[in-house]
Amino acid sequence: MIKSVLIFNNHGKPRITKFYQQIDIGTQQALLQEIYSLVSKRPETACNFLEGSQMLGGKDTRVIYRHYATLYFVFVVDESESELGILDLIQVFVESLDRCFENVCELDLIFHFDEVHHILSEVISGGMVLETNISEIVSAYSEANKLKKRSGAIATISGSGAGAVARDLGANFANTVTSTLQNTLQTTVSATFPTFRRNTGFNT
Amino acid sequence: MFEKSLTDLIRGIRANKKNEQKYIAACLQEIHQEIKSNDPDIKAQAVSKLTYLQMIGYDMSWASFHVVEVMSSPKYSQKLTGYLAATQSFRQDTDVLMLTTNLLKKDLASGNHLEVGIALNGLSHIVTPDLARDLCQDLVSMLSHSRPYVRKKVVLVLYKLFLKFPEALRLSFPRLKERLDDSDPSVVCAVVNVICELARKNPKNYLSLAPQLFKLLNTSSNNWMLIKIIKLFGALTPLEPRLAKKLLPPITQQIQTTSAMSLLYECIHTVIIGEMLTSGGNSDALAAMCVSKLKIFLEDPDQNLKYVGLLALSKILPTYPKLVAENRDIILKCIDDHDISIRLRALDLVVGMVNKKNLTDIVKRLMSHLLPSNNNSESSTLPSTLLEPAYRADIINRIIFICSQNSYSNIVNFEWYIAVLVDLTYVAGVDVGELLTTQIMDVGVRVKSVRQYSVKAMQRLLSDSSLLENCQFPESNSEVLYAAAWITGEFCSYLETPTDAIGYFVQPGVTKLPHNVQAVYIQSILKVYAYWANSLTYNWDEDSKQELLRFTEMIKDKISTFCSSTDLEVQERAYNAREIFSIIHQNLSTTHETTFDVENNIYSSTNKSPSIISELYPLFFSYELNPVAPKAQKKVPVPEGLDLDAWINEPLPESENSESEEEEESYGYGYTQKFGGSGDLIFSSGSGTAIGRRRDRKSSKKGYNSEEDEETKEKRRRERNERIKNDPFYISSTGNDLSKHSKSDGLSKRVTEEIDVDSIPVVRLTMDEFIFKTDKKTSKKSKASKKEKRHSPPPVPPVIYTDIGEMPENATLSDEEKDSTKTGNNKPIWNSIPSQSSGILDVDFSGVSNVDLSTPLGADEKFPSMAVYLAPEEVRRREEERVRRRFTERRIKQTQESTSRVKKSKSEKPKSKASLEITPNTKNTENKGEQSSKSKKVSKKKRTEETEDRKKKGKKDKGKKPKKKNSISDNATLENHDNVVVDEAASIKTLVDSDDIQVLYTLSLGSSTEVKNEPPAMIADFTVRNKCSHKHPLSKLTFTFESTSDIQFDKGLIEIGELQHDEQKSVTIEFKVLGIVGAGLTVSGNIAYEIQSDEETKTNADIPIRFELPMAVFMLNIPKITPEEFKSCVTKTADFPFTGSTSIRLNASINLIEQSFQNDVTRLISMATGTHIVEQVQGAITMYGKSVQGYQVAGLAKLTVEKNIMLVENEIPGSAQNTSVRIELKCTDQAFVDGLIREIDYLFKEL
């Protein structure tokens, strides 16, 4: 089971917090801060598994994260998930974000946190992996987006104004996947799931 | 209009970085307002903003009701917002969750799969036992939804449902299982996911799925799913050894061929945890392959692979330590890896790899992690986490664990170990004082050969003033002085200069030490003094006497400082000690006189020391403190005639539970609480302390006598159950008991026997062999698992360098016992982080894991039906019905009264009579006007005026609408009236009719065309007439209307001003209907005015007004459609998902089968519903209409007239017919059709 998905930036500001168990908001924040303080100290060359969380506790609870440019994607999982599989799942999630937002950057996540939640809900449902095929995820999202527009979404929320600004200001973090982590993880990612190579067209 | 959008909020927060909290506080204020808004957009926006703030730590539980409101919005985007807020903020105890049942039901049944999707996702977060119970049937039926998108989500949500409502698992498992053959790979994957989760908790339920899963394993190429399936098999194979054999070929093949590292890893992992290495034929080759593959992981430059490689090794360690040892060099290298995660994993392994040869080396490596390294270049590469307290404490715990495990069997040189412990005291930098203290004492007591060294080392600690100075900081580990003092005191014979030691005990500053340390200090002073004084007596002379005297005086003085301690224990001991010293002192100083007498009588020499001193010594040192051998207690022979199994007191029946509790509790007493897992392990392996002894006895009883023990236990349990059965105060928990029992047995034989082995298609083996194998395995296992559970010490070989400890006389360690100690040689795996047993994000699985899927479903096991709850609308409808019925009764009574009154007054008699005794024909006409106005007066307070009202109304109806009457009387062709009918629905009605004032109103639609997605606008025209009986003018006439959540007025206040007698004015007011258009929409307000009866007196009047919005008002005046169009419209589209129906019994008193009657009925129906008559045939009518919101209404009314002979003969002769109308409506909106039906009912009830 995936127990939690956290996205925060290099300064520990939360971008998405998702807990698949209901815990109170104070604990949520404390946990976020603890994981941030641990993860931010780790060098880029270190592995993607975080040890030493005092708060989480529990046998076989693992914290798996990936760092993309300005953002940390952290998954808290238990032993029934494959460690390497989760690493790839993070990649799938980020690639889906990249496709949905077209060159995603941190500001997209800031201003469209509700949509990020929606995309996440197409990848993980109730703590279990729902879909790993990026095209399926993206098509479900865009279909929903169409319906949303039709139903008359609040213009200011889904308005493109914020997005336009965002694109000017922010650096696309998914692209850094190619430049930094992707390279170091090439062996895992591409070797793990050959299908990825077909899906990673955005890298070019 | 000026509310902040979510984007504005986020921008604002980013712009106000300096005073973010203040800004957010202001925003929250606004949100508090906005969320109460009637505008659903604003409400949704507020909820959306709150969800964002929730993420950054602001509570939003107060808004949960509004969240539900937004969730129920018909708009997709708002629904999405609402559900997101719910998933983020709702808790199990959120009270509004009970309101969501019907909402979820509705959304799950939505035709739009995306809406279903968000409802499912929402449910997966907010599901409670109640929701799970009510919705499980809906969800299970959705397993065969046409869209895979929905199916896969349903599958995953079901798992969450099972957690909350375990009964559902049994009920729905067959359906879930079918989905393994789903055509969509994602759905199959989801099912595998769910089964994998379920099987982790209770694998035996899912053994029967093995064939299907096996097929998937061989056919699928989806790595995600393969990983899960392989993980699943890892849980299943330990239960079914034959499965392992069957699985080996495909898994071996995967290991050899796959290019995906994660799949490869999972295969190896499953081979390890699935115990396939033992059961397989060519296990050596497989093991070698696994290790060689793992080597690839470990040697890979990718840190992630290295990490998981170490992880896998740690899983192998307990069973195949040899395989791990092959990789020792790499692992040792990993200890110094710069990555802390890898380091910790490697440390886990190292703990299991330690032996006599490498112990010192490994400890040295670990110690170097604690020391701030001198080498600058090295320290720069170390991440700062290495210096963190948690990490340091972890390292120290590990050092002590690896040294002390198996009763220090790995330590060759105990002096070295004492040195290590002393060093740790200084370098620790974290609070490990207690741990070090107990270690030092333990080693000191157990290992005789090291005592001299440790006393020396302890002297060093005692003399260290820095420990004393920093004793208030826990990191300084001053607590070690406890051990130092105790060892010095106990083994003072090794002291070179005892007086120095006493000096350390009374040096200034010791009173700052913790009280327990001080107490030991005092005791140690006495011990050392006793030893020293006694040693003086061997060559007693005047010098030694003087020295002793001087010294005693000194101690007596110094010890007084302890006497003022705030701690009672210290104080008491200090007073005791001081008293002893003063007695000695007194004794010594007076020996001159007394010894003479004594000397003359008894002693011949003056050089004899005072007896008090020689008597002090044996007080402390008569017996040597020795460790007790591990088996000592067991070897104590049971005295004859003592039956240990006999009850001393017959236990009370209730004590049954407490016994088992006590058993469990006893695993965790004492040191466990203090030290967590590590302390427990260390001490349980000990044999020198009382704790160790007690524990050993327990475990040995359980461990070695388990067979008989089980029997007697079983017997006792049976007896107890028998007793309990008849005890009315005891709630039987036999089911529980059983499961607990089997659990505690680990994989007991019973479990294995229950498995339906025949259903597993595996390689045929001879049954004998199989039984033999399992038997051996399970018995061994159950023992092992039991031991692990109880944290009992692994039986250990005798301690090296120590004697075997004390044994009862004539008892020796027998060979047989030594053997048994060897078999249980599975080392406890070091749990890296001393953490809570359960994590904060852990789920409660208890319910699901107890579900048994092996038995078939019983007849009484059914999905719970939903009859328990009614939809809120339904509740409201029923309530209103009840009120209305009561009102009608009252009204009838009133009418009767008024009739009698009227009869008396006689003046209006004919009219009121007419209204009561009308023929059906006229009754209809009369009521048409009357009915509506009456209904509007439901809550009207001035009921007393009612009769009058009605009189006037009757008059007015006739006067104002003569046309209407005509139209009814000559309704030959109904078609002509279609438009009129609609008009009539909006006809003039009376709102207020009092002595002073009369208010009439008409309702009409604000727009003549269909407006979708916008609240419909309505226009109400009021006509006010001053009919004041005294012809006074009315002034300050105002209308006020209240906006409600359903109805919103742009302008709620209208001032009319003055109204002269008989003057008539008209006002118009517009309003929007925001709420769900259905039954019970009411507009309420007030009419206030002043009556100026003469110059001085003014009377204020305030009349509450209230009227309902009939459904018909919402109907558009659309052109009539032809029967053909109607037919195609109804049959072709599935646009009418909602239906409503009613049947009305008409007690017509004359022959009314005629066309005219039918016409009347038709008119009534179409008036109530605002529909057109499409077609009319004998006995049946079809209707069609469209509302301003775009709802379509299609209706069918059937008129049946039957002769009721019984009635004719026995009862009222004349009423020969029993007529009833059945009306069925179809509509695109549920609330709307409900409202329509209700109005029809109401209208006919008036008849």
Number of helices of chain B: 54
Largest sheet of chain A: 5 strands, antiparallel
On the 0 to 100 scale, the average pLDDT of chain A is: 75
Structural class, judged by helices and strands of chain A?
alpha+beta
Number of strands of chain A: 7
Question: Which architecture of the largest domain in chain B does the CATH hierarchy give at level 2?
Answer: Sandwich
Summed up, the helix count of chain A is 9
Please compute the radius of gyration of chain B using only Cα atoms.
46 Å
Protein name (chain B): AP-3 complex subunit delta
Membrane topology (chain B): Peripheral membrane protein
Family (chain B): Belongs to the adaptor complexes large subunit family.
Biased composition (Polar residues) (chain B): 822-839
Q: What keywords describe this structure?
A:
heterodimer; A: 204 residues; alpha+beta; Beta-Lactamase; 5-stranded antiparallel sheet; two-stranded antiparallel ribbon; 9 helices; 7 strands; 52% helix; B: 1247 residues; Leucine-rich Repeat Variant; 9 domains; 54 helices; elongated; AP_complex_ssu (chain A); membrane (chain A); APS3 (chain A); transport (chain A); golgi apparatus (chain A)
Structure, described:
The complex is a heterodimer of chains A (204) and B (1247). Chain A is α+β, with helices and mostly antiparallel strands and 204 residues long. Chain A has one domain: Beta-Lactamase (2-Layer Sandwich). In chain A, 52% of the residues lie in helices and 17% in strands. Chain A is built from nine helices and seven strands. In chain A, a hairpin with a 2-residue loop joins β4 (62-68) and β5 (71-77). Chain A starts with a strand and ends in a 5-residue tail after the last helix. Helices cover 57% and strands 10% of the residues of chain B. In chain B, strands 1-2-3-7-5 form a five-stranded antiparallel β-sheet. A five-stranded antiparallel β-sheet of chain B has the order 10-14-13-12-11, with helices on both faces. A four-stranded antiparallel β-sheet of chain B has the order 6-4-8-9, with no helix packed on it. Chain B starts with 5 loop residues before the first helix and ends with a helix. By secondary structure, chain B is an alpha+beta fold. Chain A: It is a peripheral membrane protein. Chain A: Pfam families: Clat_adaptor_s (PF01217). Chain A: Residues 1-146 form the AP complex mu/sigma subunit domain. Chain A: This is Adaptor-related protein complex 3 sigma 1 subunit-like protein.
